[in-house]
Amino acid sequence: MIRARGLTKTFSRHKETVEAVKGIDVDVAEGELVAFLGPNGAGKSTTLRMLTSLLEPTAGEATVAGYDVVAHPAQVRARLGFIGQGNGGGFSYKVADELHNQGRFYGLAPQVYKERAADLLGALELTGLEKRSVQSLSGGQRRRLDVALGLMNHPPLLFLDEPTTGLDPHSRANLWGHIAAMRERYGMTVVLTTHYLDEADSMAERVVVIDHGEIIADAAPDALKRRYADDTLTLVVATDDGGAVRTALPDDLGDVELTAHEAGLQVRVGTAQGADTLPGVIEALRVAGIATTSASARQASLDDVFLNLTGRSLREEAAA
Q1: Is the pLDDT at 54 greater than 70, yes or no?
Q2: 145 and 277, same domain (yes or no)
Q3: What burial class does residue 139 get, using C-beta atoms within 10 Å of its C-beta: 0-12 exposed, 13-18 middle, 19+ buried?
Q4: Mean pLDDT computed over 95-116
Q5: Of 226, 249, 269, which marks where a domain is finished?
Q6: I want to staple 60 with a disulfide (CB 3.0 to 4.6 A). Which of 7, 139, 214, 266 is the partner?
Q7: pTM, whole model, 2 decimals?
Q8: Range of the domain at 137
Q9: Those residues with Cβ within 8 angstroms of residue 218's Cβ, 6 or more apart along the chain or in another chain
Q10: Would you place residue 258 in the very low, low, confident or very high pLDDT band (cuts 50, 70, 90)?
Q11: Is 54 exposed, middle or buried, given 0-12, 13-18 or 19+ CB atoms closer than 10 A?
């Protein structure tokens, strides 16, 4: 569905050249849901704007849905839906009018675009709002209207540029439920950018990590966590003998961190497959005569992956 080679975009600012995207190579297969993950300014949105033909690359090439984004932008746009960071509906317009106009833009016959609008309004829980102005809708309703606008042409490929930014957790979950249902219904390929780690982890089949305009990792979320980060085991043991604890722990664990605890010592250690490893760690301590009073295993996160790759926390940057 998407093939990009050496995709590059530079901008001139105050007589200086800024490399927003630096020679990206990426493929997206038909039917995939791929998330581009990275901090603000990493090049995610610029990449999407090039793939949707809204920005012309400075160098490199890309084909989307079988068409070159520079040579055949109209054919590219006819085959995709695009939901940007801002709301797409005009605030003073009525919901139904916006959907009907979107159908007209794609050259659909009146009967077709009216049927599609009614169908999408029902699927996205917007029925009854047809005569409401866009500005009177809630944030979640506006975002669902954006999805409806992006799907009016029944695109085989949908681009979502930070679709849930600014929504509360309930509205975010609700919107993703609708997007997942629409994807299954129409068999779409979906490409999204996000800085919400939980979205990328739970929704995407592949995560492409971008930093400073370059792809630094590309794999399924679980594969990235296995490759670039360890799970964390946290135990509290009924002893203050750190040497005995270190001796008792299996040799194949990562670095061991010991801190004082009111019940003895808190032990933190990194390891692969933490949930499977934890019982063996508790048993090794027991054999050494050390009782464990509490224990937990935390799975590695995509933020751990980003931190290990770049030395920075993506979660903290997103919050800032």
Answers
A1: yes
A2: no
A3: middle
A4: 95
A5: 226
A6: 7
A7: 0.84
A8: 2-226
A9: 26, 206, 207, 208, 209
A10: very high
A11: middle
